[in-house]
Design goal:
Elements (H helix, E strand, L loop, with lengths): L5 E4 L3 H12 L4 E5 L12 E2 L1 H10 L7 E9 L2 E13 L2 H14 L3 E4 L3 E4 L6 E3 L4 E2 L3 E4 L19 E9 L8 E7 L2 E7 L4 E9 H6 L4 H11 L4 H4 L9 E6 L12 E3 L14 H17 L4 H11 L1 H13 L2 H13 L2 H9 L8
Parallel strand pairs: 1-2, 1-10, 2-6, 4-12, 10-16
Antiparallel strand pairs: 3-5, 4-5, 7-8, 8-9, 11-14, 11-15, 12-13, 13-14
This protein binds flavin-adenine dinucleotide.
């Protein structure tokens, strides 16, 4: 197997966007994605203004519904505010497949159904599950929510989160243009209308709380309905998948330390922002651009890693804030204050933007 100059491991938004930019600059880049076709991902599918700008620049502007309003619920209280920026919904199945197609069209060698088993930091040997080994000059680590051995992401002393997602049927237009967040002790749920017929229901919950709730989707929905009566209709929406998608071990607040060699960590492998901010896709696309530009300028992974650490230092702070915010008392107080200070919700939504809207 002839070695490409750069191997990208993982074909989510971070990996595809890096491959697109490198291929456009004439770099021989190979992208390895373990899934063999379009697939759904655990993600609330909220596309913030920064992510939308990056997507448009890559040639894939968001196609889903425009989102203009935020409704926050805790217990039987709710607060509503216009969003202080333009946002969109977009199916991850469509986004990820579209970006991979763009990467191939721009000249990247995209290999689907190829899983990487191991990466050696020093020699840059990329060992594939089928036994082959590739030795490129640089590696872009874009495996997202899944860690390779030796590259585990952890935030010391903090419990990991479980993410779950279900596609549900919309039964009315009353939810059009609204992102709804439900805060409960130990996590949050999000409901986002995706198109005329369907919506995304997503939950991020501490592993401990999920176990207390019974660790099954029906038990979780029942508990959430008990916590928040106004959400019962959302939770009772007809599920369109036999099972929810689930992913464990989300280290909210993680920011990768700079790498010494030539491994460029992008997307969730670089920084994991708490999901409620809806900025994960934006960070994936922003770090992709930063990594590709660093490589093209001859900057090492260490220089790039320090830039990411500086630019996304607030990710660690948001991780801490979200943990404090997961206590029931903090949430109830927050929603109560937001009801009487209407500008507060919009200010919080603005403060959690980490990626510039100009991309
Ligand atoms: C519950 C929840 C809700 C969220 N909601 C939102 C939201 O509404 N808006 C938002 O912007 N962000 C949201 N996020 C965050 C967002 O999903 C991530 O930040 C984003 O997907 C990161 O993109 P990525 O390319 O780094 O990783 P991923 O999208 O995870 O892609 C990684 C890719 O690598 C592949 N891969 C993994 N291991 C290997 C291997 N060994 N070999 C080959 N390929 C491999 C995988 O198959 C996958 O396609 C949410 C996250 C969670 C957990």
């Amino acid at each position: 197997m002839s070695a490409p100059e750069v191997v990208v491991i993982g074909g989510g938004p971070a990996g595809s966007a890096t491959a697109i930019r490198l291929a456009e600059a004439g770099v021989a880049v190979m992208l390895l994605e373990r899934s063999d076709g379009p697939h759904d991902k655990v993600c609330g599918e909220f596309v913030g203004p920064g992510a939308a700008a990056h997507l448009a620049r890559l040639g894939l502007p968001p196609t889903g519904a425009a989102i203009r309003t935020l409704r926050l619920t805790c217990g039987d209280r709710a607060a509503v505010s216009p969003l202080p920026f333009a946002a969109h919904a977009m199916s991850r199945r469509e986004m990820d497949a579209g970006l991979l197609e763009l990467a191939a069209a721009r000249g990247a060698e995209v290999r689907r159904g190829v899983a990487v088993r191991d990466l050696d930091r020093d020699s840059l040997a990329v060992a594939l599950a089928d036994g082959n080994v590739i030795r490129p000059r640089a590696v872009v680590l874009a495996t997202g929510k899944h860690d390779l051995r030796g590259f585990r992401r952890a935030v010391p002393g903090r419990a990991d989160h479980v993410g779950l997602k279900m596609r549900v049927r919309r039964d009315s237009d009353a939810d059009a243009g609204v992102i709804e967040l439900l805060l409960f002790r130990g996590g949050y749920a999000g409901y986002l209308p995706l198109d005329a017929a369907t919506a995304t229901l997503c939950v991020a919950i501490s592993a401990r709380r999920y176990r207390e709730f019974g660790a099954t989707w029906p038990a979780l929905l029942a508990e959430l309905g008990r916590c928040a009566p106004p959400w019962r209709a959302r939770l009772a929406a007809e599920p369109l998948w036999p099972q929810p998608l689930a992913v464990a071990g989300q280290p909210y607040g993680f920011v990768a330390p700079p790498e010494a060699g030539a491994v460029y960590r992008v997307g969730d492998q670089a920084a994991v922002v708490p999901s409620f901010s809806g900025e994960g896709i934006g960070i994936a696309l922003a770090t992709a651009r930063m990594a590709a530009d660093a490589y093209l300028n001859g900057d090492g992974a260490g220089v790039y890693g320090r830039r990411v650490g500086a630019k996304f230092a607030r990710v660690a702070t948001l991780g801490t804030v979200s943990r404090i915010g997961e206590t029931g008392a903090a949430q109830a107080l927050g929603v109560w204050v937001a009801r009487f200070a209407p500008g507060l919700l919009a200010a919080v939504a603005r403060a959690t933007r980490l990626v510039e809207a100009e991309g």
